[in-house]
Amino acid sequence: MTGLADTRTAGRVSDADLAREYRSDPERFTAVYDRYFGDVHRYVAGRLDSQAADDIAAETFLVAFRKRERFDPARGALRPWLFGIATKLVAQHRRVESRHYETLARVRAAPDDHGHENQVVTAVAAAGLQPQLARALAALTRKERDVLLLVALADLSHEEVAQALRIPYGTVGSRLNRARKKLRTALEKEIDVNG
Amino acid sequence: MDELRMVRTMLDRPAPDDAVVAKGRERLRTATRGRRRTMPARRTLWVTGGLGLTAATAAAAVAISTTGTTGTGGGGGGAGGPQAGRSTTRTLDARSILLAAATEADGQADGTGGYWHTTIVDRDTYRVADGGYTVVQQDQREQWTPSLPGRPQWSSNRSLGARPATAADTAAWQRAGSPATFKVKVPGKGLKPMTLSTKPGPTRVDRAPLDDGGHVFWLGRNVTMKDLRALPADPKRLKASLQRWYQGHGTESSSEPMSSDLWLYTVAKGLITEMPATPKVRGAAFRMLADLRAVRAIGQVKDARGRSGAAIAVTERTARAGTLEHRLIIDTAAGRALGEDIVLVKPGGFTTGFAPGSVWTSSTVVTQGWTASAPTKATGSQGGSGR
């Protein structure tokens, strides 16, 4: 027998099996939600903030459900496909996103934070350099930001980013490099100034 | 300095709380329950993995059981005027039926408009859990497919309610106290029963942007309106252009093998019944079917709405649903298909329990044509006289 049950008992059901299940029974699409809602929410919350993410992350799965026939397991996994949809929805909220970065840029780290040795270095750096970082992020092109944040927030591989955004593999690398360079330049300037 | 980690740290937000997760899940559940059939319904879903999407009506089953058998012979290219299939009781062979439809289609004027609009009623049969009888669920789906990319695609879906399938099923239902809802078995391991109601449901009007490629239909692969309209009008070239996408397996699942003829039938059926191909391409699709060895004639049948047509059929033996007969019901005088019935020749697997010879599922075209505009958000067709 082709076994829905077999794969289920064997452990984690593959994305292809999940897709097969919801094709048979649309209500099984909730299994996709259960598996990936947290990841999608984290990504959208990073870009738009938590409150907006509650709605947009849920919307992502509604859109995915409507388009479920277009998901082709042969072309990649569900996760990048879902992040592709989430990214498109985020793009419809560009104002919310830029306001989010503005807010982050205005939050000045308390001066005390700088000297604490017991803090994780990157956390201190992020806190201290937050205004620069947030502004640099806002200044990226949308395409650069999409790639950068799919890597940084969603942990997608280059190949998965290519699938999510439907862009060539090589383009992922070049956009990511450009984005990182811009961020580094913004941060280095700041470090130069402050010593 | 790792700017990626800095970005991650800066943008890190707490995980959503349980209430948020539950609320989003409920929104999705509402959407999934509203549609047992896949929304952009370009394919019949049951084909291989499609558990739980089945249908028949008493009327259709009765009509089909009274139809005559196939008269073969005749052969050749006898297109036999458009009226032949309708006004006489003579039973045509498959080739004659298909060529008559093709000839009629060839002579039609091509049209176009803002949106291609179709109204289709799907009928799916289910066995009632612990009830010992069969019910038929009817769903009406309307679609407005834009002729140009850049506009959204609209759909309107409505359940027309479920009811016992045959007189015997009605009697069994009455003995059970004539319940207004049915808990029906959903084929497939570990799937919970689904509840159907005798009452029609609300109309849901949806719109969704096309994907980046502007794909609107499925013809063995996703195609745009432009692709569809540019298909070759020569049957051999049409067959070649479609068959390029055949990979030896079914249209729903890569794990189930499917013969080339059945695959071509499945793809051509969609093209003929639901898509705005040019009339000449529709004619070519009929001619292509006429040349398939697996296609044979059934004779005059009535579709689920009681309309008469000439049926051609292809048989499919499946591992999971027994032996099925796909019947394309053709109005030869109109050069169009009225719809498709899938008859359970030999129930088995998850169709065990259904009556042999009954219509398991059907799709009936109610209206189709070009319209200037799509519905606005507030409206959406309230139509739906599913008898």
Please describe what this structure looks like.
- The complex is a heterodimer of chains A (195) and B (387).
- Chain A contains eleven helices and no strands.
- Chain A has helices spanning 4-9, 15-24, 29-48, 50-66, 78-91, 94-106, 121-128, 130-139, 142-152, 158-165, 169-194.
- In chain A, helix 3 runs antiparallel to helix 4 (50-66), helix 8 (130-139) packs antiparallel against helix 11 (169-194) and helix 10 (158-165) packs across helix 11 (169-194).
- Chain A is mainly α and 195 residues long.
- The radius of gyration of chain A is 19 Å and the shape is globular.
- Helix content of chain A is 73%, strand content 0%.
- The longest helix of chain A has 26 residues, at 169-194.
- Chain A has a domain at 12-92: Rna Polymerase Sigma Factor, Chain: A.
- With 387 residues, chain B is of the alpha+beta class.
- Chain B has helices at 3-11, 18-34, 58-65, 84-87, 94-106, 167-175, 225-229, 235-243, 260-274, 279-290; strands at 115-127, 134-146, 153-164, 181-184, 194-197, 204-208, 215-218, 222-224, 296-302, 308-318, 322-331, 336-346, 359-371.
- Residues 35-90 and 378-387 of chain B have low confidence and may be disordered.
- In chain B, 26% of the residues lie in helices and 28% in strands.
- In chain B, a hairpin with a 4-residue loop joins strand 11 (322-331) and strand 12.
- In chain B, helix 9 (260-274) packs antiparallel against helix 10.
- At the A-B interface, helix 1, helix 2, helix 3, helix 4 and helix 7 of A face helix 1 and helix 2 of B.
